[in-house]
Every structure is written in structure tokens, then in C-alpha cells.
Fold this sequence. Notes:
Layout: E1 6-11, H1 16-26, E2 30-36, H2 40-53, E3 61-63, H3 65-70, E4 76-79, H4 83-95, E5 99-102, H5 110-123, E6 127-129, H6 137-147, E7 155-165, H7 168-173, H8 185-189, H9 191-201, E8 209-218, E9 226-235, E10 241-247, E11 249-260, E12 264-267, E13 278-284, E14 287-291, E15 294-298, E16 301-307, H10 317-331, H11 337-356, E17 363-364
Parallel strand pairs: 1-2, 1-4, 2-3, 4-5, 5-6, 7-10
Antiparallel strand pairs: 7-11, 8-9, 8-17, 9-10, 11-12, 12-13, 13-16, 14-15
Helix pairs in contact: 1-10, 4-5, 5-11, 9-11
Amino acid sequence: MEKRHCRFGILGTANIARKNWDAIRNSGNCTLVAVGSRTRERANQFIGECQASAPFDRLPQALSYEELIASRDIDAIYLPLPTGLRKEWALRAIAAGKHIVCEKPCGLDAADVAEMLAACQKSRVQFMDGVMFMHGERLASMRQALDDGVSVGELRRISSQFSFLGSEEFIKTNIRTNSKLEPLGCLGDLGWYNVRFTLWAMNYQLPRQVSGRVLTAAGHGSAGGVPVEFSGEMLFDNGKSADFYCSFITENQQWAIASGTKGAMHVSDFVLPFYGKESTYTVSKPRFEVRGCQFNMEGRQRVVSISEPSNNAPDAQETRLFRRFGEFVLSGQPDSFWGEIALKTQQVIDACLKSSRLSGQLVPVES
């Protein structure tokens, strides 16, 4: 008997879809049936370029958006369309009984995401956002370090930065700086990962209050600029806190630090692992000693390595995302957890943006 696969369609030809084309191909339980674009010419171009690099045995079809959603040969849709268009097409796909892997930010605000999740529940389909690091082997090991009571102790502070240096052309023309299509700018595109890492570290406890500041705005579109440099602060119960910085105008950084009463955990590449066959993180327990006139600080660092390829491989984090998603679809038992954490992430993003419009005033996170 031929093995069942979760049959995917890609709705949109954004650059990130190239990486996920290969992730679907490597998953083992998913296959790609079609790519939808505004024009069949663009869909065929995308298919040709991806097929030359990572070929499927059966060439995916080029379809319109409407044809892809209506197709009975497709079980699930990967949706990398711009945020400004995302809810409309997600709701159409869900109404047609399609499961959804949704790029982030999942909506313009939490109300969008809540509407999508309600539709998923009604249609009994799976929803998952495209945060790849959630599916890597390293994250499980890091969870153990946070929970063992020894490596970090009681978690008190989380800090993270996710940034890349966009060119002048990027700021002026890229879709991610278009105020109509991507009004959340770097906060939605990059800050989503900062917030998600913090929520993960805090076992998905929402902060009580947040503050946020648009440090730099730029871009294009009918509504003006978008955040291209943003900082945020999150306050949790019992004095615990977190901060983050995201930017399109600062060179590549994607680090996170979780600090506690007994040590700290540091990861230098929490979003996209550095190229290679291993992913790592560091547990540090510095010790300070005074010996006469000598003030000594000992690093006492332990590097933990996990055998895990960085990208485009059967065990890479993006492949594991689609494999896990495929398992939910093929089992017929959607897992609501993935939609719930997407909604929490969007709720924190909303509050940070609201605070930025109030000159950084602390605002509550609405759940």
C-alpha cells in the first residue's frame, strides 16, 4: 500500500517559500502538489527555479489562488502571503477545509488571529505558525537546562536580539517595509521570534505589562513608514522580566540569554542555526572570588552541542516543522496548542505596538 502524505499547496511565492519547498520535500510525510500565484507565469517561474534546486518526483502544478484553495488534491496550505492579505486568504482556505501553516505575523492584530483560530476549530483543521526554531532538537535540550534547577536556577531575566542590515534598496522597496502590506515592520517580521522565545522560556505565561518603542521608522507605502528598529520590555509576575531588540538596520544578530539565580543560558543563533551539522548553546556559571588584591572572575562555561543540521536536511528544524504538521493532518487530530501560542505571541506584539504609540508607556497585555 502506498504511504499517505499530507498534500501541500503553497499560496504565494515569497522568498521564504523556497526554503519551505525543500522542507516539505524532506519531511517524509508531506508532498507538494501545487503553487498558487497571482499569475500562472510567476507560479511556473517559481516552480522551475525550485525544482531545479530541490526536485519533486512529480512536478507541482501552477495554479491561481482560487484554484489552489478549491483543489481536492490539496490537504494543507502553506501561506507566506503578506500580512495585509493573510487573514482573507487564510479564512478562504480554512472554509475549504484546508489545514494552515501560516507565516508570521499571523495577522495584523490578535483579533485577526482569533478569527482564524475560531474558523479552524469549526472546520477541524490544524493551524501552525512558521516559527522553525520551535521544532528543533536543541530547544528540547534547552528546556531541560532551564528546568533542571541547577543550570540556570530560578529564571529572572530574558534578553534577545534579532536583526539584519537591510540595504537602502531594501528599506525603499522591500515588501517588509511596505506600510500597507506589512504595517508591523520589523516588530512583526523579527520581533515575533523575540517574543516567542520569551514566551517559550516562561512556559507561555503572558507578561502583565509591556512597553515598546519604535526607535526608527522608515519604508514606503500609502500609510508612510513602518518600524525598522524596535525595542520592547516585558514585565511578568514575581519581578521576572524580559527585553528584546529587533531591527532591519543593524547587522546580523540572533542571540538570546536566559539568566537566573544560579547561572545563565546563552544561544547565539536561536532563530536560524549557524551553518553546520551541530547546534549549540552555552550554560555559564561565573564565579567571582577576591584573593587579597586579586579580583578573579572565572567564566565556568559549558557548551552543549546537539547533532542537528542547520538547514535543508531531513532533521533540520524547518523539516521537522512540516513533518510534525503532517502528523497532525494525517492523524485527523488537530492540536490547538500551536494556534494558542500564535495568538499569545500576537497579543504581546499588539501591546508592544500600542505602547510605542503612547511614548513607551506601560500597557497591559490583553488576553
